[in-house]
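Next comes the chain:
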Amino acid sequence: MCPVGAPVIHLGATSCFVTDNADGLIQRRALQLVRQRLVQLVRALARFARQHADTPTLGYTHFQVAQPTTAGKRAGLWLQDTVWDLERVEERLASLPCRGAKGTTGTQASFLALFGGDDAKVLELERRLAERLGFPRAVPLAGQTLPRKLEAWLTDALAGIGVTLGKLGRDVRLLCHTGELREPFGKGQVGSSAMPYKQNPMRAERICALSRLLLHHRNALAEVAATQWLERSLDDSATRRLSIPDAFLLADGVLRAAVDLVAGLRVDEPLARARLAREAPFLAVETLLVRGVASGGDRQALHEALRKHALAAREAEDPAAEFRRRLLADDGFGIEPDELDALLDPARLVGRAPAQVRAYLAEVVDPLLAACADVPEARDPLQV
């Protein structure tokens, strides 16, 4: 096939010279595709966060009602995690080395012999090889293979995407249960074969399932790197051939599902407002406590009064109305109805959440997306 080159082809090389350098090319291309999906998800999350930066909603800690936030601020947390994933993938892309021309045990002895002991020529061969393959450099030191720790780092970056989207998927599922969020629901989509009225969060559930599996590959490749013997052993082969392609396929699939989910995610604002109104008097206790102390009240006495009013109101048919009635009747607080209503305004209870979201979008996300303008919009809707 190559009569002129036949006498020198593969001279001084091993199979790893071919396979590990080729794997580097394949992994780099796969990372570029993952980067594209991440940029598309950042765009979708940024749109949602911007749209709902001021939309008040209940906060939850321990999945119990807590201080209000906004739907945009909550999405901002998912967005920030995704931005970190994108930054990490870009770091991997920028620093990914090839194996280079290292010889059978990484000493370059055969190449040194080939060039008559001329170090400069060996180094120039490797420099040209890395340049031709499009890598910034060859790895400085290697055994027979490219150090497997690099692939452990690679799958760790992919697993980070699984961490981000596993949380996003679970959050969406919880909020679909409360009714505050609604997944996109396709025309003709069936939620349940037995209960046709249902709209199950199928996209979020798929995201959780894929994310869970993606996380497992991080440990598999870390164990491969940790258990390699000396200059190399072949017990890495099966795990690498299974786990690395699978991790990339999972990352691509879960990102595609997340882009589709976020692009069609809806906030049920009337329901969110109703839930806030029902809980608002209880959520304002910290504000009421600060106001009472600032007016000269005793913190411990006010705290105890609020505690008793809240516990008693919880037993009433309309807890929020009962708590409000008790506060207005308590001379220790001396608060008028108009002032109390102002304190219960959800816009006051969310603190700096809207400002935090806008600042993050302006200072971090918008410049990042401007630098990624080459990435096309997502145009492959998910089939459910």
The CA atoms of residues 35 and 86 lie 6 Å apart. The longest strand covers residues 64-70. The chain has 14 helices and four strands. The mean pLDDT is 90.
